[in-house]
């Protein structure tokens, strides 16, 4: 479903991605771990072309997408994204946040979009908060609305960039539950997270990225229980604690 | 609305006339009347003096119409220019940004009165023959005032754009919105909301700055009142206290014009208010 081949990205003198290759088959959940600054966010942003890769290829559903002929807007409709800082549109209610994409990008009728948005909010457990503005919601609620907003575009895959890192501990569970349910329903996902419980239960594979390369990759049991690389071992011991 | 009933929440969308705004307007009118009564008493004049108004009524009304005409030209031009200049300053296209920075620095550094005189003197000679007319200098000076205010408004809108968190734009892009759609539906509403209060301030200044056009012979409330003042000084039998009446009336006209404008902006501010993001009261 998503294939990344030899992707490089530099920001000025900084060589952030140094030839990343990975593949996520349809219906699988891939978890990415790695130290801060290792390029995890940049990699996700290369997949939905928020960042343009300097070299290498990104394939979505078999389509080579980082080519001038392919519109970035089209690619972003195929893969939804959830950010660490939620980024809900502050001037719109939860319902309007979820409706915006279908109405403006897909040209859906207001009423149909409203019905769909309500279903999605119900799915993330927020039917009662449809008319609330982001500033009136807790972090966990905001992030769940953000997931509903991304799902409203009927994406083929979802990217999660540390979706629970900005949350108070008591709100992490509710967001992970929504993501777990999504994975169980067969959504293809790439999740950057250091939530080991989630990674062990949900991920089919874990990729350890360090300094812009995939250092190690494998089943959760292997990465957490028996890492092959010294760097992986050090990092995993830090986050397992 | 059905959605409100379903969620048990009320969505307050203020109507055009809310009780609060009626009360505010009433307070202001009472305040203005009181001020005039006190002025009349201290300075011993009668604001409704029929002898003065038989002379002053015509210039007074002509002046108001003239001032409103200039405002109707200058205000929209300045807001449109200010908006697009502010946008250009944050544009991805750097070639747009620096000429605007120069423009802003230039107009901020020159007094509006100098700009008015300069435009009326030099402007017409720069225009082709077929545009020449008796009022060309005035029109150009009015536009120059608009350009001057646009420089300030560009900074207001730029600050508004820049205070929208960049994550907002990224989230819009990640949904698949095109750049102009992201601008229209995500960035603009938020930037507009943040720009409104300083914009109201600048527009109030602009309305009053139209009085500068009288320096080059504009038919406006300030200029015509000044003419009447000159005329009265040399009219036998005129009362010096009439000057108090004239300038009280002029002050009142500018006050009403700016007050109407700020009331409209206050209404817009309430329209775009977001629950949970209101300013706090201390
Ligand atoms: N747009 C950008 N411009 C310049 N440097 C960037 C940009 N985005 C990321 N970086 C840099 O690239 C490196 C990797 O960033 P990031 O992908 O966010 O890492 P991670 O998500 O793994 O913490 C960091 O050093 C960061 O400062
Ligand atoms: Mg990151």
Per DSSP, what share of the residues of chain A sits in E-state strands of 2 or more residues?
15-25%
Task: Determine the strand fraction of chain B and express it as a percent band.
Answer: under 5%
Q: Return Rg of chain A in Å.
A: 18 Å
In what order do the strands lie side by side in the largest sheet of chain A? 6-7-8-3-9-10
The tally of beta strands of chain A, per DSSP, is 10
Mean pLDDT of chain B: 84
Radius of gyration of chain B: 23 Å
> Please, what is the average pLDDT of chain A?
95
What spatial form of chain B do the alpha-carbon principal axes imply? flat
| Helical percentage of chain B | over 70%
Present as ligands are: adenosine-5'-diphosphate, magnesium ion
Quaternary status: heterodimer
Q: Which chains share the greatest interface?
A: A-B, 34 and 30 residues
Total count of helical runs of at least 4 residues of chain A:
9
Residue ranges of chain B: pLDDT <50 for 5 or more in a row? Answer: 1-12
Structural class of chain B: mainly alpha
Report the strand count of chain B.
0
Ends of chain B: how far apart?
A: 34 Å
Summarize the biggest pleated sheet of chain A.
6 strands, mixed
Q: Can you write the helix and strand succession of chain B as a string?
A: HHHHHHHHHH
Considering DSSP H and I runs of 4 or more, what fraction of the residues of chain A is helical? 25-40%
């Amino acid at each position: 479903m998503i294939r990344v081949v030899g992707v490089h990205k530099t920001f000025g003198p900084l060589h952030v991605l140094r030839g990343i290759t990975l593949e996520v088959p349809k219906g699988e959940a891939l978890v990415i771990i790695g130290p801060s600054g290792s390029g995890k966010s940049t990699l996700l942003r290369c997949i939905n072309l928020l960042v343009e890769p300097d070299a290498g290829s990104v394939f979505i559903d078999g389509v080579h997408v980082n080519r001038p002929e392919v519109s970035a807007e089209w690619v972003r409709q195929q893969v939804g994204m959830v950010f660490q800082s939620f980024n809900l549109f502050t001037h719109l209610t939860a319902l309007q946040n979820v409706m915006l994409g279908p109405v403006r990008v897909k040209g859906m009728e207001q009423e149909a979009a409203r019905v769909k948005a309500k279903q999605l909010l119900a799915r993330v457990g927020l039917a009662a908060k449809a008319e609330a503005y982001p500033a009136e919601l807790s972090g966990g609620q905001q992030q769940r609305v953000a997931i509903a907003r991304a799902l409203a575009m009927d994406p083929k895959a979802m990217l999660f960039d540390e979706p629970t890192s900005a949350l108070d501990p008591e709100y992490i569970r509710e967001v992970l539950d929504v993501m777990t349910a999504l994975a169980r329903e067969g959504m293809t996902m790439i999740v950057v997270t250091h939530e080991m419980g989630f990674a062990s239960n949900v991920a089919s594979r874990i990729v350890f990225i360090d300094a812009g390369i995939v250092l190690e990759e494998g089943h959760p049991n292997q990465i957490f229980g028996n890492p092959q690389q010294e760097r992986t071992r050090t990092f995993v011991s830090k986050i397992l604690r | 609305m059905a959605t409100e009933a379903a969620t048990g929440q009320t969505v307050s969308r203020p109507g055009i006339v809310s009780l609060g705004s009626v009360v505010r307007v009433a307070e202001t009118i009472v305040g203005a009347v009181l001020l005039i009564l006190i002025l009349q008493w201290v300075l011993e004049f009668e604001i409704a003096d029929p002898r003065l108004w038989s002379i002053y009524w015509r210039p007074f009304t002509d002046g108001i119409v003239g001032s409103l005409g200039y405002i109707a030209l200058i205000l929209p031009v300045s807001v449109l220019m200010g908006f697009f200049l502010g946008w250009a300053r944050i544009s991805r296209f750097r070639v747009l940004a620096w000429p605007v920075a120069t423009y802003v620095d230039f107009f901020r550094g020159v007094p509006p009165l100098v700009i008015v005189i300069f435009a009326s003197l030099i402007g017409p000679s720069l225009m082709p023959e077929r545009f020449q007319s008796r009022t060309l200098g005035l029109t150009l000076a009015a536009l120059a005032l608009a350009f001057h205010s646009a420089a300030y408004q560009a900074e207001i809108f730029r600050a508004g754009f820049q205070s929208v968190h960049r994550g907002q734009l990224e989230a819009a892009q990640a949904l698949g919105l095109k750049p102009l759609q992201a601008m229209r539906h995500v960035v603009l509403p938020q930037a507009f909301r943040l720009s409104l209060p300083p914009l109201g301030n600048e527009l109030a200044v602009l309305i009053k700055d139209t009085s500068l056009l009288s320096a080059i012979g504009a038919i406006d409330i300030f200029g015509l009142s000044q003419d009447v003042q000159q005329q009265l000084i040399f009219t036998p039998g005129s009362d010096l206290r009439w000057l108090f009446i004239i300038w009280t009336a002029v002050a009142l006209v500018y006050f009403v014009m700016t007050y109407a404008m700020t009331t409209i902006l206050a209404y817009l501010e309430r329209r775009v208010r977001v629950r949970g993001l209101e300013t706090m009261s201390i």
